[in-house]
Amino acid sequence: MVSNRGSRLKNSVPMPKQQIENRVQNFSEVAKGYSIEQAITEAERCLQCPKPLCVKGCPVEVDIPAFIKCIVEGEFKTAIKIVKDKNSLPAICGRVCPQEQQCQKFCVLGKKFEPIAIGRLERFVADFEPETGSKINEKPPSTGKKVAIIGSGPAGLTAAADLAKRGHEVVLFEALHKPGGVLMYGIPEFRMPKNVVRAEIDYIKKLGVTIEMDVVIGSMYTIDELFKQGFDAVFIGTGAGLPRFLGIPGENLCGIYSANEFLIRVNLMRAYEFPKYDTPVKVGKKVAVIGGGNVAMDAARSALRLGADEVYIVYRRSRNEAPARQEELENTEEEGIIFKFLTNPVRFIGNDAGWVKEMECLKMNLGKPDESGRRRPVPIKNSEFIMKVSTVIVAIGQSPNPLIPQTTKALKITKYGTIEVNEETGETSIKGVYAGGDIVSGAATVISAMGAGKKAARAIHKYLMNKERNKKLENAYARS
Amino acid sequence: MNKIVKKEILAQGIKLLEVEAPQISKKTQPGQFLVLRIDEKGERMPLTIFDADFTKGTVKIIFQEVGKTTVQLGQLKVGDHILNLMGPLGNPSNIKNYGHVIIIGGGVGIALAYPITKALKRAGNKITSILGARTEALLILEDKMRDLSDKLYVTTDDGSKGHHGFVTDILKELIEKEKIDLVHAVGPTVMMRAVARVTKPNRIKTIVSLNPIMLDGTGMCGGCRVTIGGKTKFCCVDGPEFDAHLVDFNQLMTRLSMYLDEEKVALQVLKKKGVNGV
Ligand SMILES: Cc1cc2nc3c(=O)[nH]c(=O)nc-3n(C[C@H](O)[C@H](O)[C@H](O)COP(=O)(O)OP(=O)(O)OC[C@H]3O[C@@H](n4cnc5c(N)ncnc54)[C@H](O)[C@@H]3O)c2cc1C
Ligand code: FES
User: Quick check: helix, strand or coil at residue A211?
Assistant: First the structure.
């Protein structure tokens, strides 16, 4: 074994993927996942550092070397147990975490060679033993406490699961007609198969969580009303769902979508199967997607699959600053999407019928770093040029959803519209109300939303149990 | 799942459904709407809440059969279910005593005007209503609106009932002879644009309820965006009512036509499946 290792150390086992020619014509998952043999080969590259740095890079501190060791030994069931001990959604995180900025960034191998493909291995064990992790142990004794979770994205799902496991009655409220948050409505099937999301949701239901769809908290019930109805605590995980626009002339022309609208049509409403499904989406021959994050890549690749001839990613910074996951940038490039870096649109021009036909852009240079630490794009004078476009998708970010802050006056929010919380506990300015995920951090990642859900669940549990204890003490005093 | 408990045909192709929706019925205020989805393959469609009865736990919706979803909705029978109902959405109308209010309802827009009129009447306003329809057979809710109005006019495009012409003809006459404190117009976008053009030079405060294409109805997609006084607003969360004199009606009209081709295809597919009565 050891002798083999030297030669294998250098490169990680490539991810098997659907052939490019085929995959741009379907919505099936692009990355097929490691086979047993590939997983073991990759796992054998791990140096099993005594003081593993990768774990420090993991927002939920999965014992990475331990689960990788299990893979080497063919103990996949133990491997998934180790992962699930810290991460309740490994099939999802293995697919969408920005590993190159987290665990893999710290991998010692990465100093000289390619780091261990931790995400791929995580996905492998999650897919290999989907049942093991979802086995429900005996139901814990009921605490008699009731918790409302608002929003069914990764933050809400995680909080719901952790609270149910501790014996609380949990009701999850979701505004849309399907649970899952961004995992369901935003990230396309070819990257995040919906049956993976559904399996996680089934698991949460099996834990005893009730999910109520089509409930917009703020309009159907306010947070005050939830307490009046008998909930003892509330967790807000409503995400950052409000699309940002560029605010430039012509942006309301026909054919210009927010990435959210485009992706909701395609993923949640399955517009790629129109007219079998009722909801249509318009994709012209030449599509320009504005932005450089995961959302932009997802929109561009969806547009390609919906039959566009040419798809452009127009991004005002350079490739180095693009916030998308490394793997997705590569996949996007492989699929023939054309990148126009250091380019920023300044106005849209429409035809007589009110449809977008051209986009005027400016070329940019990179200046001094801004508050995000990335170099700030600066327009180059007189560099205007016109791009012909028939569809534009604006993917420049999402802001927090304002509905709950608007209807909950006592809830403190920041100037960015995010909810103010105690970092350690997720507690908001209202007693018994907790928040986490994108609604607190602004648009971030699945894993950080999960981490926040976990933290808040722990704090809510403590809060409820203290409350219970105090009540008992009071009663005891009253009797004595 | 929301059970249909009552169905009425109000005019040719215009139907009313009463649907079980206890929590929505408790919360609905005039001017608000809901988003429904008939079945697993269905689209999300916004519809005004015509009436809400919280003692029975039901809401009523009125719709005209024009596209696939409304035609399919019209085929549902008492006892059938609508898969998803979400609401109430949008800001309620600003109800207070303005004085003399002119209510203008065009076509199926009269259904939307009704709950607003009821509330404005209750708030003590003098109500003059102008109802417009293409032809007499398509005129709905005349009696109900008459009960709420101090005076009521009817106009039809073909002269089959009331004034032969447009709602704006009557509006112009009223402006000449009466003091008007507010005009509230709901109906086809062309009608609302015409009303705005009449009231603007006369400086009469005018409110319209806009009906752009919507998807989620909660501010998540921006598909419903409209330009109001040069600024982009999301109709579902910032509206649906806006100051008529600030609305870019032409843009709204083009945006409403975005999926005309697809709507035709969807309707054809439905017809091929042989849904009865289509
Ligand atoms: C297209 C796209 C691709 C992405 N790709 C990646 C990726 O590859 N890797 C990664 O780590 N992250 C990615 N992200 C970011 C990641 O998905 C989010 O950070 C994460 O989902 C946030 O989780 P959350 O639980 O806070 O909120 P969300 O997932 O946004 O869920 C919030 C839920 O709350 C519901 N809701 C909102 N308001 C209300 C209300 N008033 N009442 C009831 N329900 C309400 C919403 O409908 C939604 O379902 C991507 C995001 C998008 C949009
Ligand atoms: S319908 Fe999506 S934002 Fe209004």
Answer: strand
With CA atoms as reference, report the closest residue to A100 among A429, A396, A445, A468: A445
Separation in Å, CA of A161 to nearest CA in chain B? 25
Per the CB < 8 A criterion, the answer to whether A425 and A459 are in contact is yes
Residue with tokens 């005891």: A476
* Beta carbons within 10 angstroms of residue B190's beta carbon: 12
Beta bridge partners of A391: A287
> How is chain A split among helix, strand and coil, in percent rounded to 5?
40, 20, 40
Q: What is the pLDDT of residue A9?
A: 74
Residue with the bigger pLDDT between A5 and A318: it is A318
CB atoms within 10 A of CB A183: 25
| E strands, A319-373, in order | 338-340, 343-350, 356-369
In this structure, the strands spanning B206-209 and B241-243 are antiparallel
pLDDT, residue A184, reads 95
Map out the domains of chain B with their CATH numbers. 4-89 (2.40.30.10), 100-256 (3.40.50.80)
Kindly identify the ligand whose nearest atom is closest to the C-alpha of A171.
1
Q: What is the pLDDT of residues A183-193, one digit of tens each?
A: 999 999 999 99
8 A C-beta contact, residue B72 and residue B38: yes
Above pLDDT 70, what percent of chain B? 98
Kindly report the pTM of this predicted structure.
0.93
Say if residue A134's pLDDT is above 60: no
CB atoms under 10 Å from CB of B97, counted, come to: 12
Pocket of ligand 2 (CB under 6 A): B 214-217, 219-224, 234, 236
Structure tokens at A282: 């318009």
CA–CA gap between residue A188 and residue A186 (Å, rounded): 6
SS3 content of chain B, % helix, strand, coil (to 5): 30, 30, 35
Q: For a pocket test of ligand 1, which of A88, A103, A294, A331 has the largest count of ligand atoms closer than 8 A to its C-beta?
A: A294
Ramachandran quadrant class, B249 (left: phi over 0; alpha: psi -120 to 50; beta: rest): alpha
Contact B259 A219 (CB under 8 A): no
For residue B218, which residues of chain A lie inside 8 Å, CB to CB?
175, 216, 241, 401, 403
Q: B172-217, pLDDT tens digit by residue?
A: 999 999 999 999 999 999 999 999 999 999 999 999 999 999 999 9
Beta bridge partners of A363: A343
Instruction: State the closest ligand 1 atom to the C-alpha of A95, by its place in the atom list counted from 1.
Output: 8
Residues paired with residue A57 on neighbouring β-strands, in sequence order: none
Token duo for residue B27? 């919360």
pLDDT for the residue numbered A468 = 79
Confidence class for position A476, pLDDT limits 50, 70, 90: confident
pLDDT at residue A130, rounded to an integer:
65
